[in-house]
Every structure is written in C-alpha cells, then in structure tokens.
C-alpha cells in the first residue's frame, strides 16, 4: 500500500452521481459521519456540484473532482489550478503524456493529487478494439501506467481487475483508486470489469469508489459501513 489508513472510512470514496445538489445533500445527510470522502463527476458538477464541493471541504470532508480532463496543455493546467484553489483532494485527467504533464504543472505546490485514468471500467477488449487500440486492455493500461510513473503523476485510476498489475508497475508510493467496485450481490450496471471491496483492496487498491450500491440504498449510511467493514477485513 502507498499509505497507512487508520480509519477504513478514509479509503471509501462515495460517488455522488446524482442529478441535483438537493438530492446529493439529502444523501450526504443520511450518510452522516459514516463517510469522509465524496466524488463529484459530470452529472452533479454541471448541476451546481462545485458549490457543494466547496461546502464539503469547508465541513472537513475530502472531495474528488472526477472530470477526467483532457485538452490542450494550457487549458488543462489552468483547470487544475482552479481545482487546487477549490480545495479538492483528488482530480482526474486522462492518461495522455501532454495532459498529465500539464496537470502536474497546474497543481503547483498544492496538496491536490492528480490521478491518471488508464482504461475506463466500462470498456473491455471489444470496446478498445472499436476505438482503434490494438493492444488490448492489459497492454494499454501497462503503457499508460509506465508513462504516468515517469511523469510523476500522483496516482492511477484503474479497474479493480487491473489493480494488482498496476501496483506492481507503479510501485509502493503511487496511489491507486478503483471504481467499478461492487459488494457481493450488487448489480454491475454499466461496469464490465468489477470486483468486490475485499478483492480490490487485496489486489492493491488504496481507495475504492462506490456509487449506486450506497446512494441508491434504502440506508446509505449502513451500506457505506458495510463496505468499510469489507475494507477492514481485507486489510486485516
């Protein structure tokens, strides 16, 4: 592992993939102190979620801005600088060398960690082939991790099924964040390369991103604690 986590809550990132700030605020209130870390992506971000991100930071929570930035270098650098000023803990960029370099420049001396997205968890071999990547998932992930490590990016976002190979390639210091995590019995939805929280942690993940199994649960707080119990069991 790349860090020591005394509290399993710090390793669970709850994805607020929700249509409105009011809906997200309701879920956050129901979760209460069962969570310390939240992810805001396109859906909520474009519905006023950056204001909510500021509120969460002010309340002592950690925020992961998952916009997967990819643009000309200057645009990426300035966007990342804005996210650093927001107080975000994590931000994602696509794992293209120019984009990763620009993001690292943009974050400056801030504590913001830049995470490079390798291959989306909704993609499998057929999807990559359709997009023109002849090497397949494993080869594409390996190439992008190697470039990210050389550039000095803070961490990698990868499917839990790739976490073990990414940990080997990245080394002990890099952070690994895995979406596509589903507790036993949970629907996989549009994810294709998934694993349980226990398996993802054992494979080398530092942080787990879990959305629908928690936010769509009748008791989001209890569902969050159940995932954290799996994390604790995996660590033990």
UniProtKB/TrEMBL annotation:
<dbReference type="GO" id="GO:0044205">
    <property type="term" value="P:'de novo' UMP biosynthetic process"/>
</dbReference>
<feature type="binding site">
    <location>
        <begin position="66"/>
        <end position="75"/>
    </location>
    <ligand>
        <name>substrate</name>
    </ligand>
</feature>
<dbReference type="InterPro" id="IPR047596">
    <property type="entry name" value="OMPdecase_bac"/>
</dbReference>
<keyword id="KW-0210">Decarboxylase</keyword>
<comment type="function">
    <text>Catalyzes the decarboxylation of orotidine 5'-monophosphate (OMP) to uridine 5'-monophosphate (UMP).</text>
</comment>
<feature type="binding site">
    <location>
        <position position="211"/>
    </location>
    <ligand>
        <name>substrate</name>
    </ligand>
</feature>
<feature type="binding site">
    <location>
        <position position="212"/>
    </location>
    <ligand>
        <name>substrate</name>
    </ligand>
</feature>
<feature type="active site" description="For OMPdecase activity">
    <location>
        <position position="71"/>
    </location>
</feature>
<comment type="subunit">
    <text>Homodimer.</text>
</comment>
<keyword id="KW-0456">Lyase</keyword>
<feature type="binding site">
    <location>
        <position position="121"/>
    </location>
    <ligand>
        <name>substrate</name>
    </ligand>
</feature>
<keyword id="KW-0665">Pyrimidine biosynthesis</keyword>
<feature type="active site" description="For OMPdecase activity">
    <location>
        <position position="66"/>
    </location>
</feature>
<dbReference type="InterPro" id="IPR011060">
    <property type="entry name" value="RibuloseP-bd_barrel"/>
</dbReference>
<dbReference type="InterPro" id="IPR001754">
    <property type="entry name" value="OMPdeCOase_dom"/>
</dbReference>
<feature type="binding site">
    <location>
        <position position="17"/>
    </location>
    <ligand>
        <name>substrate</name>
    </ligand>
</feature>
<dbReference type="InterPro" id="IPR013785">
    <property type="entry name" value="Aldolase_TIM"/>
</dbReference>
<feature type="domain" description="Orotidine 5'-phosphate decarboxylase">
    <location>
        <begin position="11"/>
        <end position="227"/>
    </location>
</feature>
<feature type="active site" description="For OMPdecase activity">
    <location>
        <position position="68"/>
    </location>
</feature>
<dbReference type="GO" id="GO:0006207">
    <property type="term" value="P:'de novo' pyrimidine nucleobase biosynthetic process"/>
</dbReference>
<dbReference type="InterPro" id="IPR014732">
    <property type="entry name" value="OMPdecase"/>
</dbReference>
<feature type="binding site">
    <location>
        <position position="182"/>
    </location>
    <ligand>
        <name>substrate</name>
    </ligand>
</feature>
<dbReference type="InterPro" id="IPR018089">
    <property type="entry name" value="OMPdecase_AS"/>
</dbReference>
<dbReference type="Pfam" id="PF00215">
    <property type="entry name" value="OMPdecase"/>
</dbReference>
<feature type="active site" description="Proton donor">
    <location>
        <position position="68"/>
    </location>
</feature>
<feature type="binding site">
    <location>
        <position position="39"/>
    </location>
    <ligand>
        <name>substrate</name>
    </ligand>
</feature>
<comment type="pathway">
    <text>Pyrimidine metabolism; UMP biosynthesis via de novo pathway; UMP from orotate: step 2/2.</text>
</comment>
<dbReference type="GO" id="GO:0004590">
    <property type="term" value="F:orotidine-5'-phosphate decarboxylase activity"/>
</dbReference>
<protein>
    <recommendedName>
        <fullName>Orotidine 5'-phosphate decarboxylase</fullName>
        <ecNumber>4.1.1.23</ecNumber>
    </recommendedName>
</protein>
<dbReference type="GO" id="GO:0005829">
    <property type="term" value="C:cytosol"/>
</dbReference>
<feature type="binding site">
    <location>
        <position position="191"/>
    </location>
    <ligand>
        <name>substrate</name>
    </ligand>
</feature>
<comment type="similarity">
    <text>Belongs to the OMP decarboxylase family. Type 1 subfamily.</text>
</comment>
